């Protein structure tokens, strides 16, 4: 078995598949910051933090996870829409309530996800679609393939939480695009190319990358070194993630283990569990503003 890829600042939405002969074929969609910890909770039951809908129905397998969301709000909104495809305004064009379907529950959920990845606001996010179980892997039809800037990958993953970031530091550096001073470290972007000297306001580079009518950049060429830059990678670097947001090991040579940590996921389970499906995601709060923070009408 290949070693898991370790991802910093992980926010993911997953789908479970039930292997219990009595309930085989059932699925469950959820949100997590630690997929390995979460599947253990589902299989152990509600007493261990698992969801009510998966309790005493296992074993479950986490077969696919979509990650790369910028924060818990963005991921939770994606989770809600995936769980409730007939309620979200983003998928009304599919007529899911009216059109009969000749597919399994799992295939339907995959079709819904593939459609979600191709509509706003999710079509502009730097998401990764990761197959965790090769036996369940399916190719996307050509007409429903994710946008080119999204990555389809395979294999296990392990999350690594970032250390708590220090407060914004007041700085006084010149933006090389507008020649004005950058006042805060949280408004400063630099190129991913270590030999590039680009220093810029986040807004200045965003204006350079944005297409008319868009509000979130996807990618663009560095104005100094011409390196192709993904906006999501730039933001992750600004937040303190290592290059490309991926680690192979921690400083002491071992992958981090956050099983004992209390994460946003535990708080999320209490607020957004399957027992509260009518919860209005629009009322979620608590995250700092983000370039990828979905607007309130995105559902």
Describe the structure.
The protein is an alpha+beta fold and 299 residues long. The chain contains six helices and 14 strands. The strands form five sheets. It has a five-stranded mixed sheet, with helices on both faces. The C terminus is likely disordered.
> Which percent bin holds the helix content?
10-25%
Largest sheet: 5 strands, mixed
- Percent strand equals 15-25%
Tell me, briefly, the overall form. globular
Distance between termini?
38 Å
User: Radius of gyration in whole Å, from Cα?
Assistant: 20 Å
Number of strands: 14
Q: How many H/I helical runs? A: 6
Along the chain, the helix and strand elements come as EEEHEHHEEEEEEEHEEHEH
Low-pLDDT windows of residues? 244-299
**Taking all residues together, what is the mean pLDDT?**
79
Main structural class: alpha+beta
Strand order of the largest sheet: 3-2-4-5-6
């Amino acid at each position: 078995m290949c070693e898991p890829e370790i991802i910093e600042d992980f926010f993911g939405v997953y789908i479970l598949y039930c292997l219990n002969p009595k309930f085989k074929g059932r699925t469950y969609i959820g949100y997590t910051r630690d997929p390995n910890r979460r599947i253990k909770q589902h299989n152990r039951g509600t007493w261990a933090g698992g969801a009510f809908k998966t309790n005493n129905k296992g074993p479950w397998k986490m077969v696919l996870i979509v990650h790369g969301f910028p924060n818990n709000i963005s991921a939770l909104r994606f989770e809600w829409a995936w769980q409730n495809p007939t309620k979200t305004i983003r998928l009304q064009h599919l007529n899911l309530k009216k059109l009969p379907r000749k597919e399994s529950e799992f295939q339907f959920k995959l079709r819904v996800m593939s459609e979600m990845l191709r509509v706003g606001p999710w079509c502009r996010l730097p998401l990764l679609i990761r197959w965790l179980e090769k036996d369940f892997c399916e190719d996307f039809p050509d007409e429903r393939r994710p946008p080119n800037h999204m990555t389809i990958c395979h294999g296990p993953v392990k999350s690594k939480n970032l250390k708590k970031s220090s407060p914004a530091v007041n700085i006084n550096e010149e933006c090389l695009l507008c020649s004005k001073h950058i006042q805060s470290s949280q408004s400063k972007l630099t190129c991913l190319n270590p030999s590039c000297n680009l220093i810029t306001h986040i807004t200045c580079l965003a204006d350079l990358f944005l297409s008319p009518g868009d509000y979130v950049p996807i990618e663009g060429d560095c104005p100094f070194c011409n390196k192709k830059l993904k906006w999501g990678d730039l933001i992750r670097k600004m937040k303190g993630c290592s290059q490309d947001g991926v680690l192979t090991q921690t400083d002491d040579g071992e992958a981090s283990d956050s099983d004992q940590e209390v994460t946003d996921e535990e708080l999320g389970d209490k607020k957004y569990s399957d027992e509260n499906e009518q919860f209005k995601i629009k009322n979620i709060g608590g995250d700092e503003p983000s370039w990828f923070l979905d607007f309130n009408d995105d559902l």
